[in-house]
Design a protein that fits this description.
This is DUF2384 domain-containing protein. The protein has helices at residues 13-27, 32-39, 43-52, 61-79, 84-92, 103-106, 110-124, and strands at 3-4, 54-55. The protein is mainly alpha-helical.
């Protein structure tokens, strides 16, 4: 369940994760339609997250998917040395290691998201 928070106290885990996933999507220039598919929510829900402070519920699958997307973003950011242009290009170009698919297409399914994360993790841990 999604919730709306408007308090002046320390941010909750749900607020932090929601804000982080939106910032990651912004940095990677991921449109709402694609972010909605990644998170398993509707596009209007993503819009409400952006405009009205709607937060992902910690008990929902969308919260877990948001954490995975943030993990993908952090791994990719580390690999490209913090260059958002390189990260954006990597997501949008065909990758032979990912079944000749664009990573941005793959991450729209749970299996594909996990595959891309596993690939990025393996690239970060090169011995």
């Amino acid at each position: 369940m999604l919730t709306h928070h408007a308090t002046n106290t320390a941010p909750s885990n749900a607020q932090v994760v929601t804000k982080a996933v939106l910032r990651a999507a912004d940095q990677l220039e991921i449109p709402n339609t694609i972010l909605a598919r990644v998170l398993g929510v509707s596009e209007p829900t993503v819009s409400r997250m952006r405009k009205h402070g709607l937060t992902l519920s910690t008990s929902d699958k969308s919260f877990e998917l948001a954490i995975l997307f943030i993990r993908l973003y952090r791994s990719l950011d580390a690999i490209v040395g913090g260059d958002p242009n390189v990260a954006r290009a990597w997501l949008r170009n065909v990758n032979t290691a990912l079944d000749n698919s664009k990573p941005l297409d793959k991450v729209q399914t749970i299996t594909g998201l996990m595959h891309v994360i596993d690939y990025l993790d393996s690239r970060r841990a090169v011995l």
